[in-house]
């Protein structure tokens, strides 16, 4: 039973970590595109 709980906790942490990392990377990419757009428009 304990191993199942550990597995669930590990899975949750991994999934949330991937989601957070993906969100941060996406935000940075959008930020870069925004800068490029501003440079292009000026």
UniProtKB/TrEMBL annotation:
Keyword annotations of the record: Membrane, Transmembrane, Transmembrane helix
Transmembrane helix listed as a keyword: yes
Transmembrane regions: 7-25
Name of the molecule in the record: Methanol dehydrogenase
